[in-house]
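pinned: reference chain
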Amino acid sequence: MQLIQVTGMLLFLLILVLMIFVIVSTINHRKKLRKESEFIIPLGKLVAVYGHKIHVYEEGSGKKTLVFMSGGGTASPTLDFKSLYSLLSDQYHVVVVEKAGYGFSDVTNTSRDIATILLESALRKYTLVNTDISTFMLHHGSIVNPIHSYVQLMQINDILDTLLDML
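pinned: its structure tokens
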């Protein structure tokens, strides 16, 4: 009987110590995030769209514009696509749009449906470079909102073929 009480007390103390550790770690983490936030500088421009800011990075000065939009789960599309668009920026004007909640863009409570994301990235004449889920966004957008004047839909494979032709 006394063994059960001691075991229960030790378990209670262990849980209490773990909870205190988690709380202290969380407070420390938030303090450090606030301190580090002044050092995190967007690489491109923050554009106000429907009450929140979307990060847009541009590079190159070609006549044709390539727009990169990431799929889901890409923490920072600007950095993720850098190895690809840096090779293309000699011939193209490259634009990377970071959807709300990604990269340097604001986190928002607005709907994350395809129509909303397309409205937030309201560019007009461009070639959009697709990656996974952005392919569906483009096809949906070209049907629902033909005002966007999609010049061309370009898969990553097409970009790789272009790069190979350049070599």
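why pinned: The chain has six helices and six strands. The CA atoms of residues 62 and 134 lie 23 Å apart.
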